[in-house]
Every structure is written in C-alpha cells, then in structure tokens.
C-alpha cells in the first residue's frame, strides 16, 4: 500500500503479552502505537511507557497521518496462581476474559528531495573545495591573457609562490562560494522546474541562458574587482567597496561593470555545461559501461572551456582596459592578432576539467549523504 522507499521505518510499539504473540518487529512504513492493556503487570506497563517515549522521540517528523483502527479483543494472560493449576482445569463454554486496546497507526513520511536552501549550502561547500585547486589555475590563465607589457613569464609567476597564486582569493571565495556557483545551479533548477519542455538540447540551452542572466551582473562586478586586485599591487589591500568607488570615479559605470556582454556569453555556456552537459555525458558513459565521474567532468569541462574561451579573453581585456565590447575586439585583432583570443586556453581547460569534475562529484556526494542522514535520523528535518 505504501511502496515508496522514502518513508521512515519504525518498529511497532505494541508489546507482546504473556501467552500471545506480539506484532513482528520488521521493517515497514508504519508506526503502531497501542494503549496500555487494562490488565498487565507493573513491569510491562513501565516497559511500555519507556518504549513509547523513545519511539515518539524518534518519530518526530513534519508530516503525520494518524488513523484510529478500533479495538482488538485478546485473551487475558493467566496469572501466576491459575497458570500453575491451568493443566487441572478442563475447558469450559464460559466466555473468555478479554482486554481492549486502541491501536494508532502513524505513517511517517521522510522526504528524499532537498529544498533550495539546502542545495545552496551543499553547493557552496562543494565550491570551496573546487576553489582550493582552481584559484592558482585562474591566476595562471589571467596572466597569459594580459597585454605583453603587463604579462609575467610562467616561470616568474611560478617562483612567486602561493602568495601570488592565491591573490584575490578572498574575493573569489565570496564570489564563487556564496553567489556564483550556487546561483548557477539554482537557476538551472528553477528552469527545469517551471520551464522544461522535455527536449534535452532545448532545455540545456534555455537553462544556461536563464542562469547566465541571473549571475552575469554580479559576476561581472566580482570579476572586475578580482582582476584589478590580481594585476595591481596597489589594489590588493583595498576593500571591495573602496575599490569599486575608485574605479567608478575613474571610468564610470564601465569601471564597475566592464564586461557585461562577454560575461553573459561565457556564463550561459558555462551554466549549461556544468548543470546539463556533465550529467548527460555521465549518463551516456554509464550506457557504455564507463561509470566515471572524472571522465565526464573532463570531457564536458574541455568542451565548454574551449567554446567560451574567446569570450573569457574579451572579458579579461575589458577588465584591464575598460573598453567596450566592439572596441576590445578591434584592439585585440590589431595589436595581438586573432590567435590571442585563445591565449591561456590550456590553463583554463585544466581549470575546467578540475571544476566540472570536482563540483559534479562533490554536489552528488554531499546531497546523497545528506538525504541518507535525514533517513537515518542523524539530521533532523
């Protein structure tokens, strides 16, 4: 009657009485509460009371359905006096002594789907692990996308050590852990929940554009601040609010939001890749008997990063020069050549492989563990 595996499994509370088999203590979606028998020993009553308290404490959940099942007639257990002499008595036609108890069925529903707030927290934690390995790769990528006058050699950048590799990591942590990645996932979830059409390609494109529109403004501001801190030692000690005011006074709104079109193009493809392409590739690999999260993350990461790298290069150029989208394209072609659009593609592809694999694995692992803890009562609903 209740085939769902998402229900809480509790043992019945009706205790067996002497001479009568009690209900079997198996697994099932029901909690059976019984009132105390009218005639029972003090030990049975104390045991029943203590067990009922424990079961009520364990069965606290937000959704309950109670059904009163009626009465049950049961034979009165023999006392110690008449039990010893029971073999001397012959059966008679007189009615048996009975006791009446009321049984209460409690169907406890335990959810197996996380709400949006819990998903945001889990994805924030997963992004923190991604950031540990991804921030040095991002610094390497940004350095290669800078104009020649501002660019450091790879060896020089490596020798500067972790302090240089993790420049602007505080800004990146705020951006990625508390806004960027969680909101990207949330946008994809909202699109699939309200606007999904059933077509995988169409839904992937739509979810990516929807999520990209949600995060582009905030990411554009955060990325502009991060690049300003990474490329100028004078800006590294400034708080984000102070740095924003400084750039606004120098460049106007373009100083605060320097690369909105290129950021939207990058984020739309990135969101589709991380939320749609990676699960799709993983599913196809499972069909080929290759259940590899690492391979799925690497394939989707390389594909999306190569596809969006020209927009990422434009974004970095706009963040350092504060020029428009069209003017930036013209300046790059004239001064650096068309090949410059793919400069820094290798560290960015490595970052994409790490990011997609880490986020896909961590979010799936943490969500499964969280649901398991809810089922086992380790985490209260």
Q: What report would you give on this structure?
A:
The structure is a single chain. The protein is mainly alpha-helical and 381 residues long. Helices cover 62% and strands 7% of the residues. It has helices at 42-58, 80-84, 116-145, 154-159, 162-165, 169-194, 200-231, 240-251, 253-256, 260-287, 293-321, 325-335, 345-375; strands spanning 30-34, 64-75, 98-108. The chain has a three-stranded antiparallel beta sheet with strand order 1-3-2, with no helix packed on it. Helix 3 runs antiparallel to helix 13, helix 6 runs antiparallel to helix 7 (200-231) and helix 11 crosses helix 13. The two termini are 24 Å apart.
Please describe the structure with a list of short key phrases separated by commas or semicolons:
single chain, 381 residues, mainly alpha, three-stranded antiparallel β-sheet, elongated, disordered N terminus
Radius of gyration: 32 Å
Mean pLDDT over the residues: 77
**Residue ranges: pLDDT <50 for 5 or more in a row?**
1-40, 59-92, 94-109
Order of helical and strand elements: EHEHEHHHHHHHHHHH
* H/I helix tally: 13
Number of strands: 3
- State the end-to-end distance: 24 Å
